[in-house]
């Protein structure tokens, strides 16, 4: 099936007599999927056991009559107020020990088993009531797990759950004491029930204590989701179960949770995400009305991997949002360009959030495809244009394996937050810097988990800043015949968050004869320049090695070393250094590239190559040898412009 | 009566044998009013029901013998320690749920009815004991309501009070659910007793939830004050009851509270207020030793309006204070100039805080008219000079209606704090920017509440950033024949904090045919320049309109539109843009202005025009056509200089 | 005995079969002292009363066999987890009222008497088991009192203890009310049990309330230490009892605690301390890999004074640490240079922290002399070099009295934190600025407490920013015949934190006829230049005086005044002004100085002068007239270089 558009809709916010007209207009725009229901619990069950499902069935009827497929969200992200009367201890507790109350959303604790049962109950009720509806297109579980920092709760329920989880993992408290190195600072435990959560301590916790709590918390999110998934799959095995992830919330392992979803989706708000990101101010100014040109793309590739190859955008920013400190209007055309970028990366559906701007509640300043007065907002016209273009170009096709892959690992994300050592060093930042450096050359990239057992088929694989080797990844590295780029900190810890006996990067000597003997962390303003260009900043390792030194800094410290096709980068570089290293790898691996104008990016899907101009100025494409003309736009690109080329191989 | 000086005095801080000499010296300086008592409860009632009023009566006797009139402050801002034993739950609770203890001041919860009774009791006792005293000049209720963030308390008392207030307001929970839009995020309630306070939530509360809590809290402050007012008026109908407001604490509606006062007063600390303000660093440096040239003036005009035309300065900064991060010594002469500015705006009394610098307690670094060793501080000489000048010039007279009015609305202040959308956009900031731009032209301005039913008599009225139209204000606008300047966000919400059906600014088409269809909020560093000068920053609206476009920005977005004499400004401009818009309005309305040197400001009272030079350099006045010579100073003004001209109309 | 090296060692972290080899290598490097045990409680007493002391005795045996002397740390900084089951209320409470839990270190409340008994019990057990061991070289009590902000606890135990302490101090609540000035803001108490801790108030507490709480808390630390000291001295009167202070934690009075230690020691981490200091960014960049050239030296002189002339470095930074935001690798050679600087200031032992980098726990990124894989880290070679040099030079000798002394007073440190008035003004900052200005001239300085009864023997004494005169210090000043530099704020308060009757600096007229009549505090960016160079910033006093004006600022405000040999500085100057004032004093006092190259510092011990080059460039020494050649290095100094000259007087 070729990709299509969707939209998020809240029939419970509007008079029923508006529904028909809304559905008709959705259909006119070319929308094919409508997500509903994910915040509607108080209208589905206004008081305990008083179920009011009729209105939802009628809403699905109306939408179905207009040829729309409906995705129903389980409403578990917003339990109604009476649920708190029933389970007063289901509320989450923050790191300061303060209970978070009712009155916004996500007011539940993943560790609370009573609420997990309630979530199962309402899921079962919805499955029973709507599972057979002909307009049903699938399910969404809950909404944006982890949003607003809700992965972690410091409640009694979490403490008891964590103790039990530790007992399951370690078997005996002696084993735990040894694995955690509790001889340090007299932290030995006598019994599992003595182990507290790693908050409100005098100073920082043992890093493995913190990491195990993050692992535990991640497991609870997965377990919470699995309960719903199992119910929905048992009832309707053929309908996809989806969750809508948020890109910024990496507190739980999305690959792990994805064992209980069929299709991944994510909620893409490029402008807000840039505003709250760690990107330098210069980038924030340059792309204030476009969003970062690589960040959404990275997440498209990530969630394609999370979703076992299948993924959607469940919420696509249509105009200004309401939740950043400043919420700029996107450049005219961006609502179209963002959709095209997603489709280029393999999205099956891009669903705009939301159909009509709500005049009340927390998000009343969040735009929609319609204004609050039901007149079309700019996003409405963008959606109509995308629909028409998709159809005219007959756009679609499968995603080929990229020639480059980057490992993204949630546990490493947590680990380097726990043990900063250099403020601002982050696993994700390092991954995205390498991703960007490849993408600027028009290279298509896959994002892989740390459980990947083989790199066969890739020309280059990057492992940017991995906490600890997995058995799978050791195998993948051992058997890989392409070029491997290993980044700083990689392999510098065991899975128990301690330094490996042979020191990092902990690779066999035949692959890389090198030991990291000392770490030098320095503020960005005191970066050490690298001979030939670029600089090391934040993280800088000193290695004892017999490998070849490819690059070194002004103090003769090796920055890039090589043994055969394995390259190890010892520092976190500025953008210039990362680009130099990636360019070097591309040259070594003889990888084909495109010559893209500044601000322009590209991605191949099936027989198409999609170009998007993120710059604020027009750009002119250099025609690539493998292209046979344009099906959308042409070589002259306006700001926010989209050009789709047909590949010659297609003929 | 011509205006006079006052001073704040704490007899309980000093040996009784000092009182006589103090009173004599006050009288010598020309002081006529002395405020006492507002923190003396522990000395008036050292243990429960053990009343010790004699010393206060003796103090009033001494002051009276020297011709001084005494204002007695009810001591309710500082209940004694034993009161907490009696009412342990009267302590306020902060937004994190922490109880705030005894040991400073304002340690009570406005929602606590038991303490409200205690406040009534001590008020009654003081009224009985001192109501007939011939030296009594009036009463002050409590002290600086709202100071230190005390308007809001998140206690059980507040929660129960809020629930009751909501029940009174909405009648049924169904009505509340509908008014609040609780379908959004499943926030419906089944009973009023389920509604919590809008603190400690997972993410932000529903804006109407937050706004109603602010309304409730404001009502409690007014109710607390009314209890004291009613007692004092019943006993002594002819003596004025005053409260001393603080300019920076807008958390309760001062207009609303003022229904229970006869005279408004405020505590003016120009240097500290500038230090803690949002003014740009450049202004803070320029006026570090003077205070902002327009901020105190704005508050003078505001409190004249709050006080039904009658107002005082109850506390006037006499020298360095103690509570900002840096506490600079004022420019020599400022303690005199500030008093003159206040008198120019209609102050009946300017009362310096305090007579003698305290050597102990929290404010020991706060200067007084006397040093701690009883020698004169610079403020002493300033006070003596002001007294002499007032008398010599026979200064006084009523305040004529200004030709310009600006609407200042407390609910809008709260609303735009609740829903920022652009960090740094504030109602008050916008109001003061417009006020300043008029004042730089020597224009006299009135500040009006949003309940003003008619603008008759004004040439220009500005409604800078109003949350929602009131019935009164709609009438005023409808019947106004002058020039009206309506600012961004005005009318963009209903009173229930939702977007009006017809979108903002929600004016009848015959007055302004315009709809705000989109809002673009941007950091100050990325301001969009306006053709002809100035720039839009923070808040920028896109309108659908048939009105005339007077100014537009570099992207052709209308910035100032006009329909007849109604002007709508779509953005929050930088100072240059606001000045251009105001200049344009002044020209359109043909308003007479003065040509003031930089740093100099003026105000007319009765037959006098008072000039103050806030600059750090001397300035030369351009004589105005309506002046007939000077009664204080002359055309050459030193820094901190004061010149008072006599108007020709006086003859 | 000549000074020697030591090292910190954790036998409980390593397999027992490593101990022998470790001890042998320590001995080879020239190490003579080994500190062990201070975090080992959970291994000494794994469950209540189950004592396992054998391993520690075996460890001491092994170390002793290799000629090493052992310092045993009492493990009271890290009570084991079961202790919390026994005394749940022993956990400390932070200023927000949150209990701090188990899982890091220092998780106890100094006010908890039950835990004080447990600390006595384990101390007694260790004394009994190891007191006779021939390898025992002394004791360390606890570890780094006050680290992580643990001097203050806001628990019930602290509240009750504080009430009792106040009762002891003041006798009656009336006396306290008067001493505290509680008439201010109605803060009078009726009974001691009504007095709370000065946290969680509506606004700031009465400064004397805050200061008395700090005094009380300081007393608890001293009392906690004394319990251990008394036990250890009773058992082994000849062995030194030491505590290892941290330079940055001045929340308790180190002079006061030192009544219960024989030798002071401190933990010196020059790079981390610079990173977390208030030094300007320029200094932080310049000395990022060296540490501030004067800060460690200041603390060496301070702790020599605290330790009654005897002091050690118990923990010396050997390489990168783990606890600052950035943790740079020291300049090659700094681990040697830091040790030499300490020895130059009289250290008996410099003990590196730690022998081998731990692969687990909170400090796994903290380097040691060995890497985690037991190979030598750079610190290992540095230690070996220092050992060899000490021996070859036969370095040692007593510390002569310096010609300059500076008063450092803990209570003043607290006072100016409590009453800032100018953000960034600190007692310690002022002391160190003056110390630095002398040291740049090669002047040797002593640091004295405010209880010093005589300045006899000094040429110049500085009292930089003293809260209140003590009887002793008044005597010292009265009888002093040298030059005295008194800094701003000095004597501006009584011991009850109120302004003295005669105003500051509160000196007799025959010594200094001057009164501070007004204080002007201003941001650094608005400093007022001083005629002749430098500027006043932050704190600026206006004085009424008949003394001679030596320096004045551009507004003719006196900056340095003199009456005979007593100089009073009225402002806190920038570095240039402080240097000018110190240079002026040096010239007046005719004090001999050295001409040191930039970045180089010197210190005399016995017959040696030690030079250290803190600069990043080589430097050439100007030979001093009193030197008779070099025993380590020579006149050409590399970065991090050390040169030791032999004084001619030695012959
Ligand atoms: Zn979210
Ligand atoms: Zn809290
Ligand atoms: Zn106040």
Automatic annotation (TrEMBL), chains A, B, C:
The keyword Metal-binding applies. Keywords: Glycosidase, Hydrolase, Metal-binding, Zinc. One of its GO terms (molecular function) is metal ion binding. It is an enzyme of class 3 (hydrolase). It catalyses: Hydrolysis of terminal non-reducing beta-D-galactose residues in beta-D-galactosides. Its EC number is 3.2.1.23. One of its GO terms (biological process) is carbohydrate metabolic process. Residues 8-392 form the Glycoside hydrolase family 42 N-terminal domain. GO terms for cellular component: beta-galactosidase complex. Signal peptide: none annotated. The active site is at 144 (proton donor), 315 (nucleophile). Transmembrane segments: none annotated. Substrate binds at residues 105, 143, 323. Residues 403-591 form the Beta-galactosidase trimerisation domain. CDD domains: A4_beta-galactosidase_middle_domain. Pfam families: Glyco_hydro_42, Glyco_hydro_42M. This is Beta-galactosidase. It comes from Devosia oryzisoli.
